[in-house]
């Protein structure tokens, strides 16, 4: 039993981590300057090697050498493409004595594991110096979920060749992205409290001049209640739509982007749902991007685990600041009962109900089965008091976009009372996922191979990409990469120390996250460099501190202005709030060197206390104080001010 469970845990964890190693760029290691081809390039060493003597730029290239015409091997990289965008793929190729074919590049598309189609530019043969090879621009065919870019030689080709300076470029992105900033959460407006609708529209670089946005508000009978036309520009457009007094009911806000001849360039519909105050769900997201449970703001403090979590483990969590569990596997009522008995809530995973990926349930054989399996499950658990949210997507790529939207729509229809959460691993394109979930997050796992600042940088990008219209719940590394040898090219790792874990969590919080989840409980139980009994008390201490300050963090009272003079301390991040009768300033030093900061506040200081040490500080003058933060330290000041 134990053995089976471990395998299960490992398999699920791997799914989540396999793709996390890739970063924001479209291709990894496109110039072959990294130390090894793996993990980004899958290339058979029989014919593919890094060559440090021949290269177009930098200090290396990819060499292909083949004497056996029966040997037909590819070097490839899996990539994520957006169905709404158009791309090109190009490379430089040098050849030597290439015969019976040519050396080239290609992009191949797959529907699940089934080959769908590809784009195959003509390549280079004979002996040629560096030659540019490029595909025509292409889009993702319908139904395709995966794509590979390839460097290879056609079947039966022999000789030697080099590849360098590859580029996969998005030549035309989706022209319009839009989100409601009010009412942001599922378009919910409480009748009688309505105010102007606030819409953010982001328009691509290739927007024609004199484009305009036609906006109509339609009621459930498709009667136009309101209509307006706005001129728009490239980039961000914030548009206000005056709210007429609306009766309770469903409305559609229809956007049509047109050029100067009234040709439609794009369209989008946002749902508006006017409800009576008593109809608001007990669990929801408010307009400040906070989770509300029974009307009160709550900071989700969670851990990843799975549906087989034991009662002993739940008891352990109950005695900590953890208030929710994200459980991999198919959720069930008995799990919810057990969580409820331990005062914990569930983020229930339905992330696997997609056709055509590695973890698709075996009984899901056709795309229609997704709804047949997922919707009854959602309906069967939605009334359980331990339900907190639905987990819709764990790092699946953009090619699933139409189905992300469908799954989200099912949750909205089948369970209006719980938000939907998705975690992505490319924070720079999270705006594409705005209409696939109510809550978004990203999962930087930087240590020890990447800078610890990644935790804050990803959070900042994620918050910016959601237009402040979605709460951001961040996933924080609490595992050692050595637990994942297959995807860890360095084969080394290190569990974040107490100082590093605290630092990463507070980087997320100071950059705008309103929830955090640790990845993962099962990793903490198997990290090779620190045993669980030593680590868990350190973790609970950090989480208790987050919980202690969660009401101050989530407070929406207008805060004072606190600044650190520019040029000073770029490695500090800060969140300033006001709660009850004091101002709170949370500051993180992401540097491994001490940092001295001079803080300025726009209101006269009466007293300053540093909360993690309970130390009283003395202000430099009525509006300044100075403090030195140790390497990777987090300081939290409670400041009372004179009126
Ligand atoms: Ca190179």
Polypeptide structure, described:
This protein has 643 residues and is an alpha+beta fold. It has four domains: 31-172, Sandwich (Jelly Rolls); 176-278, Sandwich (Immunoglobulin-like); 289-554, Alpha-Beta Barrel (TIM Barrel); 562-641, Golgi alpha-mannosidase II (Immunoglobulin-like, Sandwich), CATH 2.60.40.1180. 18% of the residues lie in helices and 38% in strands. It contains ten helices and 36 strands. Strands 1, 2, 3, 4, 5, 6, 7, 8 and 9 form a nine-stranded antiparallel beta sheet that branches. An eight-stranded parallel beta sheet has the order 26-25-24-23-22-21-28-27. A five-stranded mixed beta sheet has the order 11-17-16-13-14, with no helix packed on it. Strand 30 (572-579) and strand 31 (582-589) form a beta hairpin. Helix 6 (454-465) runs parallel beside helix 7. The longest helix has 17 residues, at 2-18. The protein is globular, with a radius of gyration of 27 Å. The termini are far apart. The protein binds calcium ion. Calcium ion binds at residues 31-33, 55, 57-58, 60-61, 164.
Can you summarize the main beta sheet?
9 strands, antiparallel
CATH architecture of the largest domain: Alpha-Beta Barrel
CATH topology of the largest domain: TIM Barrel
Question: Residue-averaged pLDDT, rounded?
Answer: 92
> Which stretches are low in confidence, meaning pLDDT under 50 for 5 or more residues running?
1-24
Number of strands: 36
- Strand content of the residues, in percent? 35-45%
Instruction: Count the domains.
Output: 4
Overall radius of gyration: 27 Å
Secondary structural class? alpha+beta
Bound molecules: calcium ion
Helix share bin: 10-25%
CATH homolog superfamily of the largest domain = Glycosidases
Name of the CATH class of the largest domain: Alpha Beta
Query: How far apart, in Å, are the first and last alpha carbons?
Result: 64 Å
Question: What is the molecular shape?
Answer: globular
């Amino acid at each position: 039993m134990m053995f089976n469970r471990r395998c299960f845990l490992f398999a699920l964890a791997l799914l989540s981590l396999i793709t996390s190693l890739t970063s924001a760029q479209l291709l990894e290691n496109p110039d072959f300057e990294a130390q090894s081809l793996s993990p980004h390039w899958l290339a058979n060493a029989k014919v593919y090697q890094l060559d440090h003597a021949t290269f177009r730029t930098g200090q290396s290239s990819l060499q292909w050498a083949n004497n056996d015409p029966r040997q037909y091997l590819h070097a490839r990289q899996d990539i994520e493409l957006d169905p709404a965008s158009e791309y090109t793929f190009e490379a430089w190729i040098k050849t030597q004595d290439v015969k019976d074919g040519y050396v080239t590049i290609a992009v191949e598309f797959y529907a699940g594991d089934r080959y769908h189609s590809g784009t195959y530019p003509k390549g280079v043969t004979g002996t040629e110096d560096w030659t540019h090879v490029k595909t025509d621009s292409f889009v993702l065919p319908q139904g395709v979920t995966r794509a590979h870019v390839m460097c290879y030689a056609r079947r039966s080709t022999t000789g030697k060749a080099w590849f360098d300076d590859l580029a996969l470029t998005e030549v035309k992105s989706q022209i319009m992205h839009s989100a409601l900033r009010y009412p942001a959460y599922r378009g919910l407006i409480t009748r009688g409290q309505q105010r102007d609708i606030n819409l953010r529209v982001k328009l691509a670089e290739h927007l024609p001049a004199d484009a305009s946005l036609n906006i109509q508000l339609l009621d459930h009978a498709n009667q136009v209640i309101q209509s307006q036309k706005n001129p728009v520009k490239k980039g961000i457009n914030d548009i206000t739509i005056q709210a007429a007094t609306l009766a309770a009911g469903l409305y559609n806000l229809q956007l049509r982007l047109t050029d100067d001849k009234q040709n439609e360039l794009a369209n989008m519909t946002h749902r508006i749902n006017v409800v009576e105050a008593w109809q608001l769900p007990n669990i929801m997201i408010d307009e400040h991007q906070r989770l509300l449970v029974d009307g009160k703001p709550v900071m989700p403090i969670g851990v990843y685990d799975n549906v087989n979590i034991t009662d002993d483990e739940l008891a352990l969590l109950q005695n900590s600041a953890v208030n929710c569990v994200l459980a991999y596997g198919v959720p069930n009522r008995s799990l919810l009962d057990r969580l409820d008995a331990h005062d914990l809530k569930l983020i229930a995973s339905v992330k696997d109900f997609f056709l055509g990926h590695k973890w698709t349930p075996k009984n899901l054989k056709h795309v229609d089965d997704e709804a047949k399996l997922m919707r009854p499950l959602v309906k069967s658990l939605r009334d359980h008091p331990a339900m907190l949210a639905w987990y819709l997507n764990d790092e699946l790529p953009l090619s699933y976009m139409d189905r992300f939207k469908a799954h989200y729509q099912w949750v909205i229809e089948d369970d209006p009372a719980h938000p939907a959460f998705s975690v992505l691993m490319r924070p720079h394109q999270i705006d594409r996922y705005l209409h696939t979930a109510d809550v978004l997050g990203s999962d930087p796992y930087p240590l020890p191979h990447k800078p610890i600042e990644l935790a804050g940088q990803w959070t900042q990008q994620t918050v910016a990409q959601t237009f402040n219209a979605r709460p951001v719940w961040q996933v924080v590394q609490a595992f050692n990469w050595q637990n994942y040898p297959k995807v860890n090219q360095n084969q080394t790792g290190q569990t974040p120390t107490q100082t590093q874990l605290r630092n990463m969590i507070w980087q997320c919080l100071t950059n705008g996250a309103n929830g955090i989840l640790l990845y993962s409980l099962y990793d903490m139980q198997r990290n090779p460099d620190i045993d669980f009994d030593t680590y868990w008390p350190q973790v609970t201490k950090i989480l208790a501190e987050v919980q202690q300050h969660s009401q101050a963090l989530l407070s929406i009272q207008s805060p004072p202005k606190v600044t650190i003079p520019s040029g000073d301390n770029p490695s500090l991040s800060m969140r300033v709030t006001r709660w009850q009768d004091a101002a709170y300033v949370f500051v993180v030093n992401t540097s491994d060197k001490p940092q001295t900061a001079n803080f300025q506040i726009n209101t006269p200081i009466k007293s300053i206390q540093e909360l993690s040490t309970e130390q009283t500080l003395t202000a430099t003058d009525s509006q300044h104080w100075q403090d030195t933060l140790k390497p990777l330290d987090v300081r939290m000041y409670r400041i009372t001010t004179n009126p």
